[in-house]
Specification:
The protein is α/β, with parallel strands linked by helices and about 240 residues long. The protein is about 35% helix and about 25% strand. The chain contains 9 helices and 10 strands. β4 (about 60-65) and β5 (about 70) form a beta hairpin. α3 (about 100-110) crosses α4 (about 115-125) and α3 runs parallel beside α5 (about 145-155). The chain is globular and about 50 Å long. The two termini are about 35 Å apart.
């Protein structure tokens, strides 16, 4: 029997209310060290609100968020980042007037000594396949390439856990394929939580999926079993057949 890995992230009774609306309802969640988990669900299911509670973009109404067993519920976003949690939102937050290397260098310099920064940037560019674009202005890149640069900026902080919000939104088929390879590579050294809608992309990267519905976890299982689950089909997929 395989040894169970300890959780890197947990929530206990996490709840988020907006007035009388319960957007996240008493959620207990656990992510193992080294795991890649996808969060899926219909619009309004609570997955993005849950994601934002993890990073204190929203202050949870009740419950706890634990990182490596320590309660980080009241920590601010920058404090969470310092603990080793990297966050990439759907909208790229990069500097259009700087080139690819400069964007990643600025992030790496905050985490590395000056002599080590250039070496760290070179390694990141190689790892995410952007070496050939390193001197291109970010403002002249495609949407997918810009998303890749932001992922490089996140990696420059040497995170042990990375939270990705819809990383393939607006990408071409080729860009999605490159992002798939990139995320697989990153998962060799970091745990990931990915909020995503693209089912084919999820099938390509995730071993385990958490399905949200009405602010709560509907089911957690392998992607294969989730696609076979009739309740998921009825509630999440609206009774559509999945290829």
């Amino acid at each position: 029997m395989a040894e169970q890995r300890p959780p890197i992230l947990e929530t206990r009774g996490l709840t988020m209310r907006f007035g009388g609306v319960v957007a996240v309802d008493n959620v207990d969640f656990s992510l193992a060290e080294g795991e890649l988990r996808c969060l899926i669900g219909p619009n309004g299911a609570g997955k993005t609100t849950f994601f934002r509670c993890l990073t204190h973009i929203y202050k949870a109404s009740a419950g706890e968020v634990l990182y490596r067993g320590e309660n980080i519920t009241g920590s601010h976003t920058h404090q969470i980042a310092r603990r080793g949690i990297g966050i990439k939102t759907q909208v790229p937050s990069v500097f259009d007037g700087l080139d690819v290397r400069e964007n990643i260098w600025l992030s790496a310099r905050r985490h590395h000594k000056e002599r080590e920064t250039d070496r760290a940037v070179d390694a990141i560019l190689e790892r995410i396949g952007l070496t050939a674009l390193s001197k291109r202005l970010v403002g002249r890149l495609s949407h997918g390439e810009r998303q890749g640069v932001e992922l490089g900026v996140v990696l420059a902080g040497d995170p042990e856990l990375i939270l990705l919000d819809e990383p393939t939104a607006g990408m071409t088929h080729e860009e999605v394929h490159r992002t798939t390879e990139m995320i697989r590579e990153i998962n060799r050294t970091a745990s990931l939580i990915v909020v995503e809608h693209d089912m084919q992309f999820i099938k390509a990267i995730a071993n385990r999926v958490t399905v949200f519905n009405q602010g709560a976890i509907l089911v957690e299982d392998t992607m294969e079993n989730v696609l076979r689950n009739q309740e998921v089909r009825d509630i999440y997929l609206g009774k559509r057949e999945v290829a």
